[in-house]
Amino acid sequence: MHQQLIPTFLLLLSTCSFAEQPPNAAALAEDLVFAEGGEKDELLIKIADLADKRTQGALVQALLSVPPPGNKAVEKASEALHQMADAEIEDEVVQLAESDSLVLRRIGITLLGRMHTDRSADVLERAIESKTNNEAILKSIVRSVGRNGRAKALPTLKKLAARHESLAGDIVIARFQVGDAEALQPFFAFYQEQSGILASTAWDYGFKNGSAVEVRRLKTEKKDLEDTLRSMELALKEISSEHLPVMLRFAMNSGNPDVFHLLYISLPGLVNEKNSHLFLDLLASPSPELAQMALRQIERVGDKAVNERINDLLLSLLESGDVYSKRLVLSNAPRFGDQGIELLQRALKDDSQWVREKALEEIRKLRMHSKAQSQRN
What we know:
By secondary structure, this protein is mainly α. Helices cover 72% and strands 0% of the residues. The chain contains 20 helices and no strands. Helix 2 runs parallel beside helix 4 and helix 6 (90-97) packs across helix 7. The longest helix has 26 residues, at 212-237. The termini are far apart.
């Protein structure tokens, strides 16, 4: 009898979980309403760590509560909201942005950049005129105006640039984000300039020149420059589709390697199902790396019609393109099937040695692939 009970006991044991169950975010958010003091702070930190979008309203309400939470709880709630806040909590975020507390005000202003609504743009424009602004608050406002992406803010940004030279870089980025065509050249030029400064600063820091104070200064400057470049790369990834055609035309016409480099590293975040057709012209880019990256990203998300246009464009580049374009087509010859083999054979007679070498290289790859497949079969 005892032996018969053992399998049953083991079966019951295997179906029971003694691991701690994940906390119920909604229940915790409800508990937060009634919590006070240290208990409130602990609960707020726990909810923030969950990063559950359903709790965003409770997090903002906790920040607005009287007395306010402790510094650590405010910081954790702010970090969580910066990752997930949306227009659903716009009313509460506006209250934060208009708070008398500079800490809460700055949190609200930063969050308004995520709202992408006309109302949030209006609140940000009003915030610029506040007499209590310091430079850190103004910088937060400019960055949020940029992320908000409303072109109506452009006149205000230009006025602010005239009054605060120290914000020139942030304002250039914001103007780019709201679709100001006149900001394209300054935006890419600023990125190039900051990249150059970062390179020399990183070199100096790497060799730790000077005193300990100098080394710390270089480390701080290096981090600030890296943050600026990351914010510009993010701005490029988040650019509105309505502004993309103008920006891409500018990039192609510029012929600037630094512009191509910035586009290259941003393409994975830029191209999506709705806008992939806008990037087709990049296949003719004088930058081989950019053209190849563009092709891969468009292929990844493009529909059948877009991929057919890719084929047509590649074939035209083989006839009329430069050496780099022809090599790009030959690298993708397998997509054309039997016609691709014919293209490679024809390219063996091209005037350019680079093109002939590329054709030979791709033919060898096809033969090796065919041989390996035969051996597997």
